[in-house]
Amino acid sequence: MATHQRIVDDSYKTPIQTHLNYKDKTAVVTGGARGIGLALARQVAELGGNVAVLDYLSQPDDEFDELEKTFGIKARFYQTDVTKKESLEQSFAEVVAEFGRIDGCVTAAGIVYDAPFLGDSWENVIRAQMVNVVGTYFSAQLAARQMEAQGTGGSIVMIASICAHQTLPTQHVSSYSASKGAVKSLGHALAVELGPKNIRVNTISPGYIYTAMIEGVMERFPSLAALMRDDPPLGRIGNRADIKGAVAYYLSDASSYVTGNDILVTGGLHVGR
Ligand code: NDP
Hints:
Elements: H1 16-20, E1 26-30, H2 35-46, E2 50-55, H3 62-71, E3 75-79, H4 85-99, E4 104-107, H5 122-150, E5 154-159, H6 174-194, E6 199-206, H7 212-220, H8 222-230, H9 241-251, E7 262-265
Parallel strand pairs: 1-2, 1-4, 2-3, 4-5, 5-6, 6-7
Helix pairs in contact: 2-3, 2-9, 4-5, 5-6, 7-8
This protein binds NADPH dihydro-nicotinamide-adenine-dinucleotide phosphate.
The site of NADPH dihydro-nicotinamide-adenine-dinucleotide phosphate (NDP) has 30 residues, from helix 2, helix 5 and helix 7.
């Protein structure tokens, strides 16, 4: 017969499907008009949530238009430059006017370029830091301000990169790596600062995920294309479906006690190749 004290706690009996339900909630996804961001916007819709996509492009990919019809949610697109204060603030204000609330924010807007460190330019470096760091910073700030005003808490998910952890010797991505390291550290700092408001902040560090961004890298560096396919212990390049689970977990109550965390979605590349 058990002699230990029995604790009274039935919280663990709530099914994971209940925690994952995002119905009546709204998430903002920056860079969500295509690529990884679009896949993550779709993930929000699949969970039953409304989604507001902010992106530099004038038009999102056609798949965006399917979201409302397919999932019975509200999906809106706001042409936004995340590096421009007025543009970002206006889009967040329009999101709040349209949806009435923000429960989640996923920052996927980002750029990469290749340049050897010794030949890199001020223009390149400043542009990359503006999009990847400053744009992420103020997107998170605007989302957190709204979450604080609502008093509901929320979840912020920022897309960093394996480059925040390691760089392959064949790559020339010093300024991109610096920017993604900053995003990862920002996640730690915001988790501490926003935790008392029940706003959770986490990052995802993808390895190589097949999108237009990576296709461009493969075209410029054919030798890297083979490495991207063969190097990960799982033996393949990632695809956008591989990222979706991490965002579903972070955005929803499935990760209600998780903040300041980084999930590496790399096919194992970060532990060995
Ligand atoms: P894509 O280039 O396919 O998509 C990025 C999106 O961000 C584009 O729609 C782009 O618009 C948008 N964007 C760029 N600049 C701005 C801006 N100033 N304001 C608003 N939107 C902007 O890239 P991925 O989907 O591959 O990458 C998404 C995120 O994941 C990025 O942060 C990237 O660094 C990160 N990542 C990607 C990896 C991969 O293997 N694909 C690996 C690790 C991290 P536009 O096309 O008009 O510039």
